[in-house]
Structure formats: structure tokens, C-alpha cells
Design a protein that fits this description.
single chain; about 290 residues; alpha/beta; eight-stranded mixed β-sheet; two-stranded antiparallel sheet; 11 helices; globular
């Protein structure tokens, strides 16, 4: 899969050889055989901080002692390389397969950003090309033994979400990221319906940017509204996993390639991610899904 040159659009991935194409689903299954939990991270709309949540959750789980990988399937806006501190790295390919790049907190990362000359290079692919690229990468990446593999998807319930649901065997479940607004609430309901129709267990909703706490006086302001997460949980029967604050440190830390649990370990945001991760682990160990309890 070659990268575009000089800011030109990235070319389509090369065609798989017929034998590889025939057995691609089996190859993907074998590559993922050492992964315990395979979790997709969705958002019904853009701008809710889905990639931010993915990067910080991955680092939090890694700090807790779990082995974690992230597959950045937002091909048009791959952000994981920068957020996890490995922007500019290159994938190492060997006859036996491709090895992920090791990022912050030891998180293993696969991103199309590693195949592009710079962050400005656009990826102008239609749906079938994105599906082919997914199959090519997932059938060749050597993940090894992982407790968690998080798939960071672009916003919406289009090609990428459908490709993941259809190509990744035994998806453990989905996390849906939202903000406390009516518009985002409607988008979450669409994501929930998507999961139901494709038989993907919905592990819960994460309400990002729920509130802002003044660093000087401690007063809390709910900038985007309040109660949306609880309302979604009540109306859709979906578990609300956590409410994350709007924290200026988050953007600064991720721009530096240092997720908040590493950059600001004593912050309220880090504590919120730790509680979120503990709740997620508890749910998975119980084998539960859905439910607002």
C-alpha cells in the first residue's frame, strides 16, 4: 500500500493476489486469534471527540497493565499517530507480516498515517477501496497477544462501520461517544440502531465534554447542555459508562503525543478515564452488554 507523494492523493491499495483474496477472512481471523476483546468506537456525528476518547482510553487501559492495540480506521483523518506520539513512524513489513508501531504507554498502533508522506496528504478513496485496505491490513498485521484492540472509526454509520462489522470476526462490542446535546443524542440513537441491526453488542455510551470546571473557582458549567447521556440510557436502554469533563489539557497533551493519563496523571480527566476503564473491564469480565445498570 503505497503513499501519495508531494501532497498528491494517496493511491488505492494494490490488489490482493487471488489466493489471499479467497482466504482473507480466515487470515484476519488467524491474525486476531490472540486478541481477547475487539471493540469498535463509534460516534453518530463528528466533533464529539471520538478519537480523543479512543486514545486516552487506550493509554488508560495500558497503564492499568493491559496489553492494548489501536487500529485507526479513520482513513480520511487519521489522528492516532499524533495522539499516541508516533507521528512520522513507519510500519515494518517482513515476509511473515506487518508489525504495529509502539506508541505512548506501549500501545500498539496501526494507522494509514504511517503510509502517507505527511499529514496534509488527502486519501481520496471510495468505499470499496477502503474495504480493500482494511482487509489488506488486517490480514497482514501481526498483533500478537492483546487484551484489547480498539478500532477508531470515522463519524457516522457508513462504509467504514459496515466494513468493520462485516470483516472483523467476533466483535466484542461497541462504544458510542456523544456530547450532551439533542443533535448528538439523535445521532447516538442511529448508532445504537446500527449495532442492533448488525448484531454488534452495544457496551455503552460515553458522554464526552459533559461539563467544564473552572480551574480558579471550581464552578461547573454545562456548556453543551445536561442530561442527554442519562436520557439516552433511559430511552434506549443503553448503559451510560461515564461522563468526561471538557478539559483544555486534553488537546494540549494529545497534540504533544502524550495522552492525558500520562501527561496529567492527577487530573480530573484522568480519574474519569480510570473510572470508565474499570467499569468497561467489569462489564466485559461479566460478559454483559446493553443495559443501563
Amino acid at each position: 500500500m503505497a503513499a501519495g507523494q508531494g501532497g498528491k492523493p494517496a493511491p488505492p491499495p494494490p490488489a490482493l493476489t487471488p489466493p489471499a483474496q479467497v482466504g482473507v477472512n480466515q487470515q484476519i481471523r488467524e491474525r486476531l486469534s490472540g486478541v481477547k476483546y475487539r471493540i469498535i468506537v463509534l460516534s453518530g456525528k463528528g466533533g464529539v471527540g471520538k478519537s480523543t476518547v479512543t486514545a486516552n482510553l487506550a493509554a488508560t487501559l495500558a497503564k492499568m497493565g493491559y496489553s492494548v492495540g489501536v487500529f485507526d480506521y479513520d482513513f480520511h483523518g487519521p489522528a492516532m499517530a499524533r495522539m499516541l506520539g508516533v507521528l512520522g513512524a513507519q510500519l515494518q513489513a517482513f515476509p511473515m507480516g506487518i508489525f504495529p508501531v509502539t506508541g505512548a504507554a506501549g500501545v500498539k498502533v496501526i494507522s494509514l498515517a504511517f503510509l502517507l508522506p505527511d499529514e496534509k496528504t488527502p486519501v481520496i478513496w471510495r468505499g470499496p477501496l477502503k474495504n480493500k485496505a482494511l482487509q489488506e491490513l488486517m490480514s497482514n498485521v501481526i498483533w500478537g497477544q492483546l487484551d484489547f484492540l480498539l478500532f477508531d472509526l470515522p463519524p457516522g454509520t457508513g462504509d467504514e462501520a459496515l466494513n468493520i462489522a462485516q470483516n472483523i470476526p467476533d466483535v466484542t462490542g461497541a462504544l458510542v461517544v456523544t456530547i450532551p446535546s439533542v443533535v448528538s443524542q439523535v445521532a447516538v440513537e442511529k448508532s445504537a440502531e446500527f449495532c442492533k441491526q448488525l448484531n454488534v453488542p452495544l457496551l455503552g455510551v460515553i458522554e464526552n465534554m459533559s461539563y467544564f470546571r473552572c480551574p480558579h473557582c471550581g464552578e461547573i458549567t454545562e456548556i453543551f447542555g445536561s442530561g442527554a447521556g442519562e436520557k439516552i440510557a433511559e430511552e434506549e436502554g443503553i448503559r451510560l459508562l461515564g461522563r468526561l469533563p471538557l478539559d483544555p489539557n486534553v488537546a494540549r497533551c494529545l497534540d504533544e503525543g502524550r495522552p492525558v493519563p500520562l501527561c496529567a496523571p492527577e487530573s480530573e480527566t484522568t480519574r474519569a478515564f480510570e473510572e470508565l476503564a474499570k467499569k468497561l473491564v467489569e462489564i466485559l469480565e461479566k460478559g454483559g452488554e446493553g443495559g443501563s445498570g
